[in-house]
Amino acid sequence: MQTTRTNPHPVRPFRRLLAGALTLVIAGVLSGCGLTVPADPDGTLDTVTGGELRVGATSEPGLVDVSTPTPTGSLPELATAFAETLDADTMWSVGSEETLVGMLETGDLDLVIGGFTDETPWVEHAGATRGYKGIDGAGDRSLVMLVPPGENAFLSDLEQFLDEEVDP
């Protein structure tokens, strides 16, 4: 007696082959369009590089002092150092959290710093970095910086910079 095995699911190999081919086609089409991930729909990273990094700062004891024309403290130092990596000049705006987040949403700022933690309610209106505990003056807080919503290439560059400068 001879036993013959049959594939109980003869369609599966075909589906896998079709799915693989479709993935290759989509990848080819997207790369042909010049689409890169992460991307900035509003071009923040391209605009800032070699230009100006517009930073909003809100007062936070031990982190941001806004009593002088140019904010000082550990967060302004990080923002200025990040701007230098982009060959950009830093332009400062000082205001309340609400005002500065509104300026992010309208495209008037590229970055907002202050005492924002990884539990900030502003993430509904802005993008946020991962939380960083290693920032001088943060204490046991996990601090974030805010960026315009959807500007993922800019956010990615900022996080790469912060990963090298501070402990996450």
Write up this protein.
This protein is of the alpha/beta class and 168 residues long. It is built from five helices and five strands, in the order ααβαβαβββα. The protein has helices at 12-32, 44-48, 74-85, 97-105, 152-165; strands at 52-57, 89-94, 111-113, 127-128, 146-147. The strands form two sheets. It has a three-stranded parallel beta sheet, with helices on both faces. A two-stranded antiparallel ribbon has the order 4-5. Helix 3 (74-85) links the parallel strand 1 (52-57) and strand 2 (89-94). The chain is globular and about 35 Å long.
Features:
168 residues; alpha/beta; three-stranded parallel sheet; two-stranded antiparallel ribbon; 5 strands
For the report, how would you describe the main beta sheet? 3 strands, parallel
From the spread of the alpha carbons, the general shape counts as globular
Strand order of the largest sheet: 2-1-3
Number of separate strands: 5
Order of secondary-structure elements: HHEHEHEEEH
Count of runs of 4 or more consecutive helical residues: 5
Computed Rg: 23 Å
Cα(first) to Cα(last) distance is 67 Å
